[in-house]
User: Fold these one by one.
Assistant:
Number 1:
Amino acid sequence: MPTQDPADTVTAAILVIGDEILSGRTQDTNIAAIAKFLGPKGIRVAEVRIVPDVEEEIVSAVNHLRGRYQYVFTTGGIGPTHDDITADAIARAFGTGISHHPEAVRRLEAHYSHTPGMLNEARMRMARIPHGATLVDNPVSKAPGFEIGNVFVMAGVPLIMAAMLESIGPKLTGGAPLLSVTVGSSVPEGVLADGLRIIAETESDVSIGSYPFFKGQRYGTSLVLRSQDAGRLRAVAARVAGLIESLGGTPEMDEVA
Amino acid sequence: MPTQDPADTVTAAILVIGDEILSGRTQDTNIAAIAKFLGPKGIRVAEVRIVPDVEEEIVSAVNHLRGRYQYVFTTGGIGPTHDDITADAIARAFGTGISHHPEAVRRLEAHYSHTPGMLNEARMRMARIPHGATLVDNPVSKAPGFEIGNVFVMAGVPLIMAAMLESIGPKLTGGAPLLSVTVGSSVPEGVLADGLRIIAETESDVSIGSYPFFKGQRYGTSLVLRSQDAGRLRAVAARVAGLIESLGGTPEMDEVA
């Protein structure tokens, strides 16, 4: 059970938009990539939702999440095809209009200028941006994402999503980063659990997650300790290491980071 | 934009429980595995949520999802440690009690009988099951999942989750399976999009998803057509193949499955 968030914790939600993720056809990797990008900035991903390419589902999820968390990051549905409906859904969620954004049009014109006819009606749709939004740069394929209110709208293709996230980074204000340290050993989770519960209860300012692992022939438990306070992390990690030793294990601890 | 679900479509939601997924430390693979297991049974995953190890978040998500979809599948949080709170949260969501389930206790006693002391208090916690629930077999490590109402509660470790899913399979009632066919080509999404929109609008009983791909040096677009009707899928796939050829591409089509 995690400790209460400190008062200065900044939280975010991720909204993944796409039938291909829900069907299992495409394995999502964006959720973990976004979470790992935000963590060191002191922004904790507190909820994720995956919804289909259905406008009312997107609108409803965006409006719930943007009211509850400081930031919302969406992925998917901003390409040129008929099933790319994210921009329209976001406009509707914010009760604003949508039309071709002059700077977005300019970027697409420049990108496709080498071949006449390349910038067709479908590709021009990628320049449709809700009114009041600011563009998010796409250094890979130029068609921009956008930022409106506390919502950042990004592409679903992981390479493009990662580039957009980099360009969003400087705009984000995080809290004190949550530091972590992992203490691993070959002691099974079930053997550690009783002692661990006592530590978790008495050191309740440090959250402790317990994750069994199976690596090749080796199995054991990784204990992930999280806190904003490096000193407290080291103290509780030492106590956890002591528990592991008392149970005949050899604790392996990485650096606090 | 997908077509409306046929009246006999059976829908499911997945609820992933775990700080380690939200932090990005662990890459989830259960969502895609569950979706791929359910699809051929005619059960469509319509929504996914990922929530932290916080009881009120689990309760709230379970109660929302079980009211909206025919089935809910949860993963994570049923191990022996202090951060495994799923069983208690599910009991609370259903307004029922929770205690050690005799058959679950029997299975753990048999599993740990070879070494005295192995079945400690923490491991015995894995036999705590909400009242009114039915056990879900765990052929891997014995500690069972459970089924209550329309909610199936499974482990988070992918190997164990997959084994539980197999044992749940025969209990599920699906609709007519959604068949699919993929038509791929090296024609870029933006070139296909205008023609594809017309096909999607006039053949609105078949859903068409468009996904750009990058494989090594090769890039192009995969068009995924879905319908319960194999004949309609073949007809619309032929029309999509014709569009690709008219744009100078070579369509590659797999079998309807």
Number 2:
Amino acid sequence: MEQPLVTLTTDFGRDSSYVGQMKGVLLSGCPGASIHDLSHSIRPQHVREAAIFLADTTPWFSADTLHVAVVDPGVGTSRRIVYVECDRQRYLAPDNGLLSRVLLKAPPTRVISLKNRKYWRSEVSNTFHGRDIFASVAAHLCLGLDPTGLGPEVDDLQTLDWAIPTTTDQQIVGEVICVDSFGNLLTNITVDQLVVRGPESERVVECQGRRITGVCNNYGNRTVGELIALFDSHLRLEIAVVNGNAAQQLDAREGTTVIVY
Amino acid sequence: MEQPLVTLTTDFGRDSSYVGQMKGVLLSGCPGASIHDLSHSIRPQHVREAAIFLADTTPWFSADTLHVAVVDPGVGTSRRIVYVECDRQRYLAPDNGLLSRVLLKAPPTRVISLKNRKYWRSEVSNTFHGRDIFASVAAHLCLGLDPTGLGPEVDDLQTLDWAIPTTTDQQIVGEVICVDSFGNLLTNITVDQLVVRGPESERVVECQGRRITGVCNNYGNRTVGELIALFDSHLRLEIAVVNGNAAQQLDAREGTTVIVY
Amino acid sequence: MEQPLVTLTTDFGRDSSYVGQMKGVLLSGCPGASIHDLSHSIRPQHVREAAIFLADTTPWFSADTLHVAVVDPGVGTSRRIVYVECDRQRYLAPDNGLLSRVLLKAPPTRVISLKNRKYWRSEVSNTFHGRDIFASVAAHLCLGLDPTGLGPEVDDLQTLDWAIPTTTDQQIVGEVICVDSFGNLLTNITVDQLVVRGPESERVVECQGRRITGVCNNYGNRTVGELIALFDSHLRLEIAVVNGNAAQQLDAREGTTVIVY
């Protein structure tokens, strides 16, 4: 039998004991699980950052991979935990908007509220559902449990608002939605919005008062230190400094306005 | 056959070449081993931090998991390396107190001093026993080697002193034993010590001159920025700031006094 | 069948979405691959650091392990991507000198330029060949693809210059080539260069104006805070502070001169 694939995304910190405990419970329940850490460095309680991360990363996995995502400021309150099937992937997550960007791409094909305590650890702490509910349920799913057993189907998932660029005849006004580990600025402006205005080489991109003429194809054809605009691997407009850090250089962050003329 | 489970805990730094070299030797010896990083971010040479980490994390793994722990300021001296069976788990560690908190829970059922060089790499460096002894021996154990072959049984493991809260009629005086990645303060005061004094909602917790009234059940029911006391997932008293960092806010660290009235 | 072993070394940052996307593509193509992260914390675009890292780490793996290395400032330009067999290991890397230190040990036994788009993802972005070429080709190799199919054999790999110590009757002048996670200074002076001058206990090592008499065998036999010289696990001269950080204490870095008398 193939090893069931599970990924983990949390804000616990990469080397925290919490991650190890989740893996212990998961592997105790399903020793054959193939576990892959996606990120444990989501900023603490930053549901929005995790939502972008999941939407960028999970679609690249094979069908039926189980993605366990625990960024959960409401742990121990009455917030729901849900099992979601969407776009051929499977998810376990708190119902706090964490999956709202995954769901922008396709509607969910199944949503179940985890109510059946049979598949939880027998003792459930108030502060660590990642171990006591998520990891335990994930082990059962890896062993082949039909998700129907987890609880009732529901249809009212929490969502988050995602800023949409405003477009006029003169310009597109968008914003930075994420700063990556290189300091590159990822925006909510996509290639199709931009190219309808004419050749990308003639577009002007403005951020923090700095103007960049032309959207180029890659980092490598420009000189070191140059401020450039390009399309990232998800076809979003990105602002970068060749071999440098655009976020620092422009003093830009999530929410900073980006305009395309 | 099931894949033998091995975990790694070191102070090498997550992305150091040393971790990769250990994995190379382990997988060369036992290609089917399933290796899981618990932490490589133990503060350098900080045996006490690693001891708490191991006691918190390893009990969640299935029986007979092999936990390889290398926080080893005495590498290359005559300090012993030991194989220990305790509470259904198996360990390889330097004999420097690293397992002393695991051993608080249960006495070891077997302790062997690694004297038999047959299972070490043929060349052993003076500075990297993690690769040349630990990883090599771990590979042999994963292949099914009877630990009896590793060396003689011994019974005088090194221990560390662990502060025990002092209890009077008026108060419990304990201390912070660990600061987690969120800045939460974990203490050596446990739920059973505290609740014998009456309802937890009426207890007063004092740390760095700040007083908190009542021990609550989780983070989610309080307001952002509030200083709270609660029980962590190991039923230790914990001091936290909702969506914030208690260690920074209170200027608290390992050893800081915590009093419960 | 044994699981094919793949290692990953990049400058993406450990928890970046880019690493997760590579794993997704690799596991989609070859679900049975056993993937091991070596490092994702190479300093951005720092080909030289990655070259040392790879040469230190990959030889410890079993024969035919596939090492995928993506530190690739030229992504999207006409720089080649190569498949290399060397010293029983297999590599996928950009042809930018990344393998030049591995190749110091042994000449390559096969070098192929990845020209055949058949084994790439059907859509290839300009900025993320790690996912669209490297991970896709790695999956095919894990499934048993004969590397001959990847493209034409070539023989003109890019190299980097590596400083070689200069030796006179009076002294050896070398330099720091890497600072590890403990702040230890690894140099390009090797044990065999040093011992021909007489007993290592009588050598004097100078760095940043500080002199150390004698090269010792390990960290553990000296006092805390002492500045020492020793041989690292690759038999290179190393400068360290016992339980401390030599790089900070000496204000030393890559390229800092080290002299042995």
